[in-house]
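Input set for joint prediction.
Command: fold jointly, output tokens.
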Amino acid sequence: MTDYGPLTLHVPEPAVRPGGAPDFSNVKIPKAGAVPRPAVDADPETIRDLAFSIIRVLNRAGEAVGPWAGLLSDEELIEGMRNMMTLRTFDARMLIAQRQGKTSFYMQHLGEEAISSAFRKALLPGDMNFPTYRQAGLLIAGGYSMVDMMCQVYSNSRDPLKGRQLPVMYSSKEHGFFTISGNLATQYVQAVGWAMASAIQNDTKIAAAWIGDGSTAESDFHAALVFASTYKAPVILNIVNNQWAISTFQGIARGGAGTFAARGLGFGIPSLRVDGNDYLAVYAVAKWAAERARRNLGPTLVEYVTYRVGAHSTSDDPSAYRPKTESDAWPLGDPIIRLKNHLILREAWSEERHKQAEAEILDTVITAQKEAESYGTLHAGAKPSAREMFDGVYAEMPPHLRRQRQQAGV
Amino acid sequence: MARMTMIEAIRDAMDVMMARDERVVVFGEDVGYFGGVFRCTAGLQQKYGKTRCFDAPISEAGIVGTAIGMASYGLRPCIEIQFADYMYPAYDQIVSEAARLRYRSNGEFTCPMVIRMPTGGGIFGGQTHSQSPEALFTHVAGLKTVVPSNPHDAKGLLIAAIEDPDPVIFLEPKRLYNGPFDGHHDRPVTPWSKHDLSEVPTGHFSLPLGKASIVREGAAVTVLAYGTMVYVAQAAAAETGIDAEIIDLRTLIPLDMETIAASVRKTGRCVVVHEATLTSGFGAELATLVQENCFFQLEAPVARVTGWDTPYPHAQEWDYFPGPARVGRALVETMEA
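tokens >
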């Protein structure tokens, strides 16, 4: 005889499924300016609250308020907005190109443009990002050539990666952008190792690791936190929580923890949550975390609270698993509109200038696209040679690969 | 020249490279202060400091993952996985990342890294301290796989591996750490000091990856072996009186096909020996290559002598281990075929 009843398995469910009314009442949004800004060398034990709140700068009226505000000039903010607009336009054109059959696959950033665009501003030349597939703002804001990006997406004759990688898996050492794997979470721990190397060499460079909410469930995420914490590596551990891991809501990876940022607390890592749709807040937090790394104070974990407005990729249809109007109900708004409203309030911008900028940016992107397409697309025009398929597996081609290349007749 | 055990030779290789090249860092579980459970890194932390040689958390994915980051930064990590059997949590890092950085980034990022792992059985280590997973690495494009069989080669090959621009898997047959072992487990242990190949050049000395060594010349049959099996094959040849030509492959990828093919063309017969399990083992690759390259010179089917397709057992270690009796039988059968 036992006093215990039968056990049951708990399987978390999102608040709403298709057909239901979107509901984000579970996302607690503190007022802009409400979260304090601690000193970068604050004892991690004293700032644990930051893992459970959301650092916000722009309020609903478009004003920049609170202790994390006031870091960027009008010019810098306009540049930031143009970067976000460029990324959104780039995405829109590449999505269409994929639908037209010019490439196999694409992944857009819609709604998440502020995170990588603003983060880039906190880095210095020589720093290294270990990105996922949704941080192309690091490249756009870093001034990487859009033509090169498109050539990669098209896997054409000018693809810097010779057609070896899936579209959007860019690589640019010069722009501090580590070759994207496409595997999840593996690069989180590599970023920690890269940062450890910088410290071993007494260098001044720092690293940034990137991961999505879903992939924090991978064991590599936890390995990264152990190593970062143990060796106080100069690394920023970024988690982009866009609510959805393909069709799986963030609660499946988060489990019983209140937030993803809270994962860092058990490792003694200062862990912050920030409004990912607020360019000013993202920049302020990134700058704070970078400052900690540069002063040899060790790692910082940052959770960006955002929403993936588009599909996971061109192979995904979100209407099958979430309400179609859910993105409209997302309480943190759109990053470009919010920054635009702020700049207008500052009298540094206008609706007219915005429209003009949109047109200019579209022109620039289309010009780049035309040039990229002149070098070929996935199924038409010039493409990387089959012979090159055998290059670069090793620094020096071993005999067995030479034989295989011969057999292939290329 | 100096007399060394395999452990001393491996340690000496790291010592030489750490002294020559400040980019060389060494870490792993119990590797720092204590010097490794097999003592391969003993004294390196004291000599080069805690940031060049240090203890790592028990996380093989973390050890390999951070080493990849360090290698891509420009360091030359030479890391230890405590037993090859513990490698699996790091397999994704090795296969999807280390092996492919150069290829997928078109050479922008590379991974000059050595992953050392004690491999093989013969020490009553049971299924979690005895495995020979070399085929899991030779199957992966972008990796090189090395298996030394004596102190001389261990030092020369490890230095070459550390200097190599690509990731190298360095499998150290743990039964050979303290002496050559021919499979006669009931006989007294032979120390390295009685063996010619414990004479190791001092200072910097490297052997090219991809060059096999003929350890016994013969005319009757070619034996392809590596690691511990080199000594088992020698014992089998001596005990059967068969004039075998025994080739120690030393590196599996790149493979010295020239030496293999020249030998089999001469002898017309071939026996492949490894301690790892049979099915889809590296022996399958060797047998196929011999068949492709030497078919018209072959006078008998290529034979394989390997561990059985079971997990590595504890009590039945010597029933599992492909010892000289089994190898000898294969030699006789191949000669009679």
